[in-house]
Amino acid sequence: MAKVYDGDPGEALKTGQKNIPRGVLFVQYAPLGDQLYIFLVGKETLKILIAPVKPADLWKKIKAVRQQIITGETEGPLTSNLSALYENLITPIEAELAQVKVIAFIPNELLFYLPMQALVKKGINGEKRYLIEDKQIVYLTDCRCHERRAASR
To answer: Any idea where the domains of the chain sit in the sequence?
Structure first.
């Protein structure tokens, strides 16, 4: 996975970042052409990474999961797809997630329809671990939601 940016985020972002609670990481995936960029914003950090999956392949997996959920499928292929999505979306940022308690996803496009908390990590012995078992998950419609909340206090 390529690291695109890891440095000083500039004044505009720093102003907004001060309202992000410690232990929270904002995560937004941005499909641009054949690349899937991952924006990670914490109270004092900004990283932009490139995920090792093409957006078109990601959309196919998300559509498959959505269909499996609609039809009430459990286990088997559904778990396999949720595990593949974990590998594509979460594994590339596991090091950054290890340091936080809360992941604030800012979904877009088909990611609005993917229950990120249900993504599955498979262990070496075949055991399954859902993302929600390790992290608190919240969804934001945009990164300014926390600013409005802070201003209303």
So the answer is: 2-146
